Recover the amino acids of this structure.
């Protein structure tokens, strides 16, 4: 190939470091004279089919560095999950602009888009290099030890639980915090990041990989509330019963008939319903007034501007690696972070097949889940090197 | 007086810097040889009457420094609002231990406790020096430019809105964030901290000092959603209608009859109800799907471990100043932060009368409120020097 054009886009829920990966791709490509234009598509695949592009070839490095350090997706994002017909439209747009390199930063749906676009280009005989650059706060991509975006979200969740645990220690009661991650418990498990001993919360952690039993939950909370005088609880938004029914939906149908239109995701409903349930079923320790509160941690989990420094570096490195891999001649793949064996933390960046990642969901390994209601110390040890500098905790 | 004992306690909702004030008091007193013991009472006035004390005289300075930098109240806090009988019990406990100095770190209720205890000691002829050390994320103390704890909470709110605004820009829709502060709008106004131009959210800010009209709110949101394609909204948990009725309660009674037991404070209910209302009454801009989400920022506002450096220093200084003022011979008072005139920011720490602060609520000045639905740039300029180092924002 003589000079070629490239395009990069961002997809799915934003993270605190997705712009690092964007800049990693862009700065690597445009420093190579085999490239003509490096385009960014606004709002992911939607901008690709709508010709809503921005030329990233000549933006100053200073500006790129500033964008890299800024949370959320600077190009805009998209929730579209393209089928084959949609991908054919994408492909035509790429061919029209003589684009030979396509980088899509996102989760397993984005890997699937890369896979289908790659299939379409293969069928047409047009040489297009398609790379998926990983991003997700859920950490649910197969073949990865962890994904860019997860460590910063985990840092936020860990620090929020640390502050909230100290708050709960100062004004005792039962406190529920609902954490993102519908299908994978990695982010909810990150609530254990700053825990130092058994007195520290969270005292109970419920992930979607374990079946949630409301009666057992109530007993678990009562036991800790009675013995410690307080109880901090981490709950995944995706907790469900043995039949797979979401607990929020179950609480609604069990307790009030005409709440049917309450939305469970992106709302405080699950936490509020669990708090209402506990208020009716718990007994306060002697001398205490029953006090139950719930917070739903919300969007700050994915975009609060206090990213992990390790996550920032790795997200940038993953973007650069994608560009280098494509320039080296590889035709397609998904970039992955794996962990090197050894006592001190080291990440290996590699490339895996699109089909290994596309459409699959990785779950929190069973070995980290303790008795269906807690997370092991081994998990916190696995997480700690990813989370960046962490504060010390002083107590009286 | 020969050697005297002192006691210090913490009250009300914890903040990210209340331990700085605690340590400021303790380190100043114990370095003076006029002091015997410096006690801390666990859980505020509750620990004072229950003799639940900790001797802070001999803890290492390293340990104190670590405690100072840790969020929440290290001694534990209390929601008790003592009446005169309660204060008489406090006074007796103080006299029994030959305690001549009492420092109470908290909001306007804590100032009132100091006032009553001081009154009781005056009546008995026992020389007791009673000082209130200010603390509140609400910034609602009279005679103060701002109070320790507010700047860190304001920093959190400002940064959370910054990240969320960029998130909303990436995935457009209507986003409501509910902010703490039942009666004073200072913390909700802090949502404007990182706003740079009119494209940046929050596009609408509703504080409790302005009457909230649901129909006008709906029109306001529709106007911005139609013109910008998105709308980020800051709402105080304390918004109310012209009759003083809380909007959450109004939405519940207006829309569903048997939700009576839903708790509005410490829950996601207000945000969820406003979101439900908007979903039924908004029209999405052409080509967009209607998307409305709500978050309730919750306890991370008061205890997320990323405090403002200015707030940390001022909270420490206020504690030291309280101890110095008492040692100088003053008998009672409330410490206050005022702002020196001039172009560059400078705080003056002073002492005011307990009765000037006790039981009063300061409100957001009207001059900062724009048209009942926004906050002026002058407010952000007032806030910025308090918030510590702030991140730069890069965009494409």
């Amino acid at each position: 190939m003589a000079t070629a054009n490239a395009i990069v886009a961002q997809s799915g829920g934003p993270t605190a470091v997705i712009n690092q990966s964007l800049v990693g791709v862009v700065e690597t490509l445009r420093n190579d004279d085999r490239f003509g234009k490096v385009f960014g598509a606004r709002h992911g695949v939607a901008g690709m089919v709508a010709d809503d592009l921005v030329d990233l070839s000549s933006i100053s490095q200073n500006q790129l560095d500033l964008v890299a350090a800024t949370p959320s997706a600077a190009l805009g994002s998209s929730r579209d999950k393209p089928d084959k017909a949609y991908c054919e439209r994408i492909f035509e747009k790429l061919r029209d602009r003589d684009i030979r390199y396509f980088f899509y930063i996102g989760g397993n749906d984005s890997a699937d888009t890369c896979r289908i676009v790659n299939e379409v280009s293969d069928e047409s005989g047009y040489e297009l290099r398609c790379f998926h650059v990983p991003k997700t706060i859920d950490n649910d991509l197969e073949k990865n030890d962890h994904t860019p975006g997860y460590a910063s979200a985990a840092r936020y969740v860990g620090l929020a639980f640390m502050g909230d645990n100290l708050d709960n220690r100062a004004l005792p009661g039962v406190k529920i915090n609902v954490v993102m991650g519908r299908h994978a418990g990695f982010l909810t498990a990150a609530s254990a990041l700053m825990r130092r001993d058994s007195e520290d919360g969270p005292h109970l952690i419920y992930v979607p990989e374990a079946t949630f039993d409301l009666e057992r939950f109530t007993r678990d909370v009562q036991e800790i509330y009675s013995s410690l005088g307080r109880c901090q609880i981490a709950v995944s938004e995706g907790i469900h019963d043995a039949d797979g029914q979401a607990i929020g939906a179950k609480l609604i149908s069990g307790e009030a008939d005409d709440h049917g239109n309450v939305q469970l995701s992106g709302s405080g409903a699950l936490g509020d319903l669990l708090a209402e349930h506990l208020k009716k079923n718990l007994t306060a320790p002697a001398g205490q007034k029953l006090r139950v509160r719930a917070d739903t941690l919300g969007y700050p989990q994915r975009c609060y501007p206090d990213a992990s420094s390790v996550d920032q570096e790795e997200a940038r490195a993953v973007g650069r690696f994608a560009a280098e891999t494509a320039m080296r001649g590889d035709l397609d793949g998904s970039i992955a972070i794996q962990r090197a064996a050894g006592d001190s933390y080291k990440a290996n960046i590699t490339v895996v097949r699109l089909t290994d990642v596309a459409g699959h969901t990785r779950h929190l390994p069973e070995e980290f889940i303790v008795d269906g209601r807690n997370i092991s110390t081994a998990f916190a040890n696995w997480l700690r090197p990813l989370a960046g500098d962490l504060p010390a905790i002083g107590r009286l």
In short: Chain B touches chain A through 72 residues (CB under 8 Å). The longest helix of chain B spans residues 150-170. Chain B has a mean pLDDT of 94. Residues 229 and 288 of chain B are 8 Å apart (CA to CA).
